[in-house]
């Protein structure tokens, strides 16, 4: 049985058979992997303490016919350490779910791995009091960067209809996947209004200018991600309740 070594972040774990778990892991060299952790659901498992969320883990993986299996794990760096605070666990879980949404199996994800590493460090620095504005900006910036490195950045240069610079009342068209000046919306077209301050923030953020995100920016990006996923993102449901 051949094995390989890699490092990764645990994005999710699920029950798998009686005493096993299935771990979804983001790695730099192998992309997103689903790995069976044999016996990791047992209280005396030697692997499970190393397979923590919000941490980078060194992994030995054994190739399998359908799914690869975890042959070894060593905790490398914990970016968030238990007991987790409310800001850390809610925002950290949202980062992991966004990454899981925008990654693919067997695709090199070095840029996303580096991005997750950097933003988990920012989550660790969130204030415990009055943390919500900082958390909204952090998540909105993270989502725009994820879209950019995934090649799915929002088309912000001009109106999709008239090709003029965006100004005044602007809508986002789910059908044309772009922004429109309100007069160019077709009858019955599925659109959502986007505040001018949100468009301005998205444009400046895409240009590398980091400012505090307006309240509507995260709401728009969340709707955009959920439309692509075709489902509600569970971590964002929890986040909205906390906000």
Terminal CA distance reads 49 Å
Helix content class: 25-40%
Major sheet strand order: 1-2-3-5-4
**Radius of gyration based on Cα positions:** 20 Å
The computed structural class is alpha+beta
Largest sheet: 5 strands, mixed, barrel
Shape: elongated
What string gives the helices and strands in order? Answer: EEEEEHHHEEEHHH
Counted beta strands: 8
- By DSSP (H or I, 4+ residues per run), the number of helices equals 6
The average pLDDT value, as a whole number, equals: 88
Which residues sit in consecutive blocks of at least 5 with pLDDT less than 50?
none
Portion in beta strands: 15-25%
How would you portray this structure in words?
The chain is α+β, with helices and mostly antiparallel strands. It contains 6 helices and 8 strands. The strands form 2 sheets. It has a 5-stranded mixed β-barrel. It has a 3-stranded antiparallel sheet with strand order 7-6-8. The longest helix has 18 residues. It is elongated. It starts with a strand and ends with a helix.
Keywords:
8 strands; alpha+beta; 6 helices; three-stranded antiparallel sheet; five-stranded mixed barrel; elongated; 243 residues; 25% strand
Draw up the topology in text.
Elements lengths: L2 E14 L3 E8 L3 E7 L17 E8 L5 E11 L7 H16 L8 H15 L7 H18 L20 E4 L4 E4 L9 E4 L1 H11 L8 H15 L4 H9 L1
Helix pairs in contact: 1-2, 1-3, 1-6, 2-3, 3-5, 4-5
